[in-house]
Specification:
7 helices; about 5% strand; globular; mainly alpha; single chain; three-stranded antiparallel beta sheet
Length: about 200
């Protein structure tokens, strides 16, 4: 198992089922929606169980890891309690993406950017990462979260039929080492992905 991958890199929810390939880290469903909103040029998000994976994406995940990225962010003064949009739109996050890609491609890493202070207004009020957008009211927040949840359900229904995934990946006691395994598409991804826990 890769250190730190038992919990979402952004909010520490256990058993994350999504990944941001750009950073080689695992994230929960709620944080994956926020990462998707950043755009694929900043955070390329994949489902651990539902998506097929390319070899290079698997290599990025092997070279990454939640603890490795968190340690880098901590060293650079990028606090975990800041909004996802604030953390990942920094020169440090951009450098980390480029460094990881260079590592996989066998190139030297670019020079680290100058250290910068995070803006004071980047702190999020919700320690679980299900953060509100700036100026968003309670009703707007609830409506947006409901819409994101419904869109995710619709994508799963379109991919797996009306019954959705029928509990796929929702059993926190599931152990890949017990001989089971979800998925299996995408060039043998299932076995490698489940080792990331």
């Amino acid at each position: 198992a890769i250190p730190g991958n038992e919990a979402c890199v952004d909010c520490a929810s256990l058993n994350p089922q999504w990944a941001t390939v750009s950073y080689g880290t695992l994230i929960c469903l709620e944080c994956s929606g926020q990462h998707r909103s950043l755009g694929v040029h900043i955070s390329y998000v994949r489902s651990v169980t539902m998506d097929s994976w390319k070899d290079k994406e698997i290599q990025l995940m092997r070279c990454g890891g939640n603890k490795k990225m968190r340690d880098f962010f901590d060293r650079r003064g990028v606090p975990n309690n800041h909004r996802i949009s604030a953390k990942y739109n920094t020169p440090d996050a951009g450098w980390y993406r480029d460094k990881l890609k260079a590592e996989v491609e066998g190139r030297p890493a670019p020079p680290e950017p100058a250290k910068q202070a995070m803006p004071a207004n980047a702190h999020r009020g919700d320690p679980n990462g299900k953060e509100r957008l700036e100026g968003e009211s309670d009703n707007e927040y609830i409506a947006r979260q409901t819409k994101l949840r419904d869109e995710a359900k619709a994508r799963m229904a379109a991919k797996f039929g009306g019954g959705g995934m029928q509990g796929l990946g929702s059993d926190a006691s599931y152990s890949a080492s017990g001989g089971g395994g979800y998925g299996g598409g995408g060039g043998g991804v299932g076995g490698w992905l489940w080792r990331w826990w």
